[in-house]
Design a protein that fits this description.
- By secondary structure, the protein is α/β, with parallel strands linked by helices.
- Helix content is 43%, strand content 19%.
- The chain has nine helices and five strands.
- It has helices spanning 2-6, 14-21, 73-78, 84-88, 96-107, 117-130, 143-151, 160-166, 177-195; strands at residues 29-37, 47-56, 59-69, 111-114, 140-142.
- A five-stranded mixed sheet has the order 3-2-1-4-5, sandwiched between helices.
- Helix 7 runs parallel beside helix 9.
Amino acid sequence: MIDWLKNINKNSPEFWKNYHSKFEKKSNRYVVLCTETSGLNPKKDVILSFGAIAVIEDSVLLGDVFEVTIPQYKFLHDNGLSNDFLLESEQPKLSESQAIEKFIDYLGNATLVGHRINFYVEMINQSLEKLACGRLKNEALDIEIMHKKLNDINNANFTIEQLSTIYKIPKNERVSSTDEAYTIALIFLKLKSRLGLK
């Protein structure tokens, strides 16, 4: 509520107004997200790529995918990091502002799903702040938290690899954030079924 009040008089970008208009009704679409980032500090680090895939009901929609690489040359140069992997990536390349705008349009009012999703949400919120937008409004589900709830576990953490083994998801040689998003989507479908989510 406070975030909305804070931004009410701002001239928000058109894509942000369109995004807000999509929340008048609830969506049955989930967007499974994985990003590559330069580190784990949302205040200092940047997003290097997005990989996302949609899930509706009990199906992963292979034709409903979002993938983009963000060449963060200045950040990488200023921090002495190599940008070779960005140059070699076959994913489409966009500036950070273009990538965020396209991702928000792709996401719409879907529920976000991921592994430690709060980190990705915060990274996106930091990027949105640079564009004079508010924060994401989407609900979010975390496969690690879902697994812990299903099994009544409080004192352990689980990697994607561990969850893949537990839920018998075939191992894939991870090539991109989209490949990882697909693995997360398969784990999510199993957890969604076992937890009785619609």
